[in-house]
Amino acid sequence: MARTPKSHRLTIANTQQTIDCAANQTVLEAALAAGIDFPFACATGNCGTCTCHLDAGKVTLLPRGDASLSPQQIKAGQTLACRARPRSDLTVTWLSRAER
Amino acid sequence: MTVSDKRNRAAAKLMADVHAITAKEGITPSALHALKLKLVALAAKAELFPLADFAMPVAEGRNHPLLVEDNDGHGLYLTISLPGKEAAPHDHGIWCINAAVSGRECHKFFRRTDSLARPGYATVEQVGEVMVEPGGGMAMADHDIHSTVVVGDAPAIGLALYGYALVRFPSVSWYVPQFNSVRSTPSRRHAAMA
What is the pTM of this model? Predict the structure, then answer.
């Protein structure tokens, strides 16, 4: 019998919604599955449209292009919703282009 | 002459050949094929592209400009992508040629199958596939849709030639089959040309 992946609680601060996010699911996948209109475009770590601030929690990042998220952005607490899988309960805030 | 000098000279020769081909017949399927053969021949000269001359990605994918033309011309880049690096199906609005120096990158080609009636909604179906590996390459026209993923355990190192430099790219339309979505990123052309 297949084991159900561990799940974490994910809060999207912009909409003040808290949903489940499986450990093998990205923040973007969980948000869209819950009907949240999270901004995105490529969903594969290239364009940076889904850049968000990681307000709380820890994530693992899937492969991405260097131009999509700089080391300075990571240092500032930013991540990519399309590449981030939860390692704990999370709170994120998606960012406008001007805020990145 | 240093390796860097030889590389610059080879890039300039390639670009001269590219302009000779496109001046003669425009951007046609046969012209794109001819450009691909030129780029594959350049990529085969692996001694011109020693990894010591190019920083590895901080994450998993990085582009190094080799020759970026002025006056809204073409852009030639060396690309390094690590295993697992991927890009969803996308149309970058401008023609593109890829050729491998080393490693393997799978390119899949798609066509849009929905009616274009619903904003943000799109479906695509795969219509082709090419493995870009040493000795080979791929060419695509202005509005072709392709996806990429690096396969195997080695980095995919290749040459990429675009009709426009990356800093002057048009809007890119991304199709994500998992979400049946299409989303476009802003064009860089106005800002870059201002």
Answer: 0.94
